[in-house]
């Protein structure tokens, strides 16, 4: 095996996992809002971008048959750079919405494939559990750095360019061009710097691989209490899935349309930077609570802390505060609660996946998690247009009730999650 310091590639690969995801799932929503796309259209079509993450467990065996994990990692980064550049080049076309949606979908597909390859490569590049454990925090930190940089810094730059040029399409074209150059640089760095583990090779026994895959798939649906488990995975974020799609339109829409009228740069600051930092802190706090008390004891408080703060959007839509500090504080409260409660969700997926095929079963859990975000997100824009922002956020809060019902149905061992 070629020796490389893990510090030379683990942080940058983790950062690379976050960039295309942020671009496809978050920047696209803000960009389309700036370019005048209706809430119903942007919510419906951008929610479809979750689909590659929904079905990614189904094509993971294909990667094993047609290349090494190292090759797929670098290739998908090259595809990501091409996708980002293509968005930049098509924004001035008359039919930009259709073209950019196609490109974003391909970018999402490349990103989901990159996740499969790079997660597998991480375990091969750091072959011992001790090495892997040592860099878990590093991977999480650099992935979150990509989220903060994308939702916060990139959106802030886009807003500044919109103000200086007066042309949102040109501003976002510059932004995606810069992202493409960044990702191309990361691709070149990893082609040179990624180690070449001896265990990273293409599988030739295709028949055996597919038989193992079918058995793994079947064993997942034979788990005890799988119906309640699937209900929990699909419904735990039912309210949040709708709220998340409408957060950016609400914050950016003018006050005469029921929004808060923030500039794009202000949105990048209060939601993309302060909000994401609060999300990260909430996740860390949730992890500490679960490790101390165990998931069974902690899950009910965590469910409440995740969903009750959604009421701040009802307040914001009713009071329409103009002070940026008040808005930022409300968003920080909501995002902290989301991060806190989501830690319980992640640990529950670990519980479900535990067993002989834990890696594959965890990937299947994340697929159902993505489906639970995709389907409600698709209709959220239409619902908002029918109800208005205030009633929509009330509806989103009501939509959190199935999460409480499913929490009552799932079974959790008393000591699970407790150290």
TrEMBL record:
It comes from the Bacteria. It is a multi-pass membrane protein. InterPro entries: AmpG_permease/AT-1, BT1, MFS_trans_sf. The chain crosses the membrane at residues 42-60, 99-124, 145-163, 169-189, 269-291, 298-320, 326-350, 362-383, 389-410. Coiled coil: none annotated. The keyword Ligase does not apply. Keywords: Membrane, Transmembrane, Transmembrane helix, Transport. It is found in: Membrane. Pfam families: BT1 (PF03092). The keyword Membrane applies. One of its GO terms (cellular component) is membrane. Belongs to the major facilitator superfamily. Folate-biopterin transporter (TC 2.A.71) family. This is MFS transporter.
